[in-house]
Amino acid sequence: MEPILCGVQAGTSVKDVPRVLSCIQPTGSVHLGNYLGALVNWVSGQHEADVYHGIVDLHALTVTDEPGVLGAQTLDLAAMLFAVGLDPQVATVFVQSHIHEHSELAWIMECTVSFGELSRMTQFKDKSAKREGEFVSAGLFTYPALQAADILLYDAQDVPVGEDQRQHIEITRDIAVRFNHRFGDTFILPKAVHPKAGARVMDLQDPTSKMSKSSTTENGIVYLLDENSVIEKKFKRAVTDSDGVVAYDRETKPGVANLLDILSACTQTPIDTLVSQYSQYGPLKKDTGDAVIALLEPIRQRFHELHNDPAELSRLLSVGNDRAREVAAATLARAHSAIGLLPRI
Ligand code: TRP
Hints:
three-stranded parallel β-sheet, single chain, 2 domains, mainly alpha, 52% helix, Tyrosyl-Transfer RNA Synthetase, Rossmann fold, ATP-binding, 13 helices
C-alpha cells in the first residue's frame, strides 16, 4: 500500500512496485565504466521497479556556462539512454529543465533547509575549494535543494546512489521531515540504496584508477561511441604487467584483472573459466576488445539512428516528460496546498 498523504494517494505508481529515481548529469560522453557499472543495471532494473530517470541539466549549470552546449549534450544523453535499452514505455526518462516543477519546488526546499546544513555538504566544500579563485555560483551551494526537489517530486522511495551522494540523500530526508513537521505529511521519505554492483571498470592506461571522464589520457577510456578500430587499439595498448601470467589479482595485477573483469561482464563468463582459457596477454586483450566491440556496436548503431531522427527522439522523450510532469505537478500542488499558498486565481 502506498502511504496516503494529505488525502492524496502519494506515489501514483500503478505498477505496485517501489518508485525508484536515478538522475544523471549531461556532462561528458558515456564510457564503458558508466555502462557496465551502472547503465546495464538501469536497463535490467526497469522491469523490477517503477523507475524514473532524470537527465539533470539544471544541475550541470552549476559548473557549465558555455552557451549552446548543454542542450546538445542533453539530447545525446537521451539518445544514449534509449540506445542502451531503456524503454520509454516502461522507464520514465525525462529532462529536468522541461519539468518546471523542479525549479519551483527547489525554492521551497531552499526555504526548508538551513544555511548551516548546506555549508556542511562535503561536495560543496570540495568543489568550491577546487574552484578557488574562479567563479563559485550560489547554485553550487544550493545544489542539494534542487536535488531534494528532484527526489521528493516523484515520491521516490529508493534512490540508488554511490557513496559520494549519500549526504545529499540524507539532507533530502531531513528537508522532507522538516517540511512534513511544519506543514503536515506531504512528502515520502526517500532512502539511499546501494545500486546493484556492476562491474568496476578501471582505466586501461592506469588500472589502479576507475575509468572516468576526468582521466588524463584518452587511451585509457573506452567511449560507447568509439569506432571499432579505436576500441581495438585501446585494448591492444592496455597496460598489463611484465610477468606474463594470466591470473586474477586486483592488487598485484590490476591491468590483467581489469581485462578479465571486462571480458567476464561482456560475455557473462565466470572469471575462473576465463583464467583457465588464456595463457598469454595478447589473445586476452584481443578477445576483450572484440567482446566490447560486439557489445557496443549495436548500441552505437541505435544511437546514430536516433540521432539522425530528431523527430523520433523527441517523441520518445516526450513520452517520459509527459509522465514525469503529471507526477511532479501533483506533488507540487500538494506542497503548495500544505503550505497554504493562495490557490491560483
Ligand atoms: N547529484 C547527483 C550526481 O552528481 C545527480 C543528481 C541530481 C541526482 N539529482 C538527483 C541523483 C536525484 C539522484 C537523485 O551524481
